[in-house]
Amino acid sequence: MTHSIHRKLVAAVLGVAAVTFAGAPAPSARAADAVPAKALTEGAKKDVVDTAVAAGQFNTLVAAAKAAGLVETLKGAGPFTVFAPTDDAFAKLPSGTVEMLLKPENKEKLAALLTYHVVPGKVTAKDAIALDGKSAKTVNGKEAKISVVDGKVKIDGATVIKADVDATNGVIHVIDAVIMP
After folding, report:
1. Residues 92 and 178: beta-carbon distance below 8 Å
2. Residue 66 sits in which domain range?
3. How many structural domains comprise the chain?
4. Is residue 87 part of a domain?
5. Is residue 27 part of a domain?
């Protein structure tokens, strides 16, 4: 998906001007470097949704959560563990996938995809490492495989590129790919 289409898509779903994303840095070879550290370290003062918004690298995820009707749930008491794909991770999906999922008639599919990225409770990186070779039951009811490869935590093949971003109602682990149920 080109950056122009991505900006228009996010702007349309969020109802904000596309100019909001003007001057945004090009996708980084190291996605973890693209996530503003200050926004992520201040997350403990905000819920998982507001922490993702403040980071500025989860615009597609937030737009998708809004389209799926999940924002209020994710702003709830929790705790939640969110394996959050970056905008770059969503851009790796086949062309047209995000646009298709954001259509109102695909709201259930989108919700199923997004809830596959959420585990109930607060699972820290240390907890995830202890789950090496096991599965975690996601909010959508399906199991996601946790593994540790070369010291890096993976969930269904996506690599955690930034772990333990605290929020008032849980924790976010930034991942480099969208995982599919």
Report:
1. yes
2. 56-181
3. 1
4. yes
5. no
Q: What's the CATH code of the domain at 177?
A: 2.30.180.10
pLDDT digits 0-9 by tens, 23-35: 223 333 333 444 4
Is residue 104 exposed (0-12), middle (13-18) or buried (19+ Cβ within 10 Å)? exposed
User: Which residue's entry shows tokens 């790919």?
Assistant: 177
Q: What are phi and psi of 15, to 5 degrees?
A: 70, 30
Of the candidates 49, 70, 68, 45, the residue with the CA atom closest to the CA atom of residue 59: 49
Please state whether beta strands 80-85 and 143-149 pair in parallel, antiparallel, or not at all (unpaired): unpaired
Which strand (E) or helix (H) includes residue 144?
strand 143-149
Q: Following CA atoms 69, 109, 119, 146 in sequence, which dihedral angle do they give, to the nearest 10 degrees? A: -150
Per-residue pLDDT tens over the stretch 94-143: 999 999 999 999 999 999 999 999 999 999 999 989 999 999 999 999 99
Residues 144 and 115: beta-carbon distance below 8 Å: no
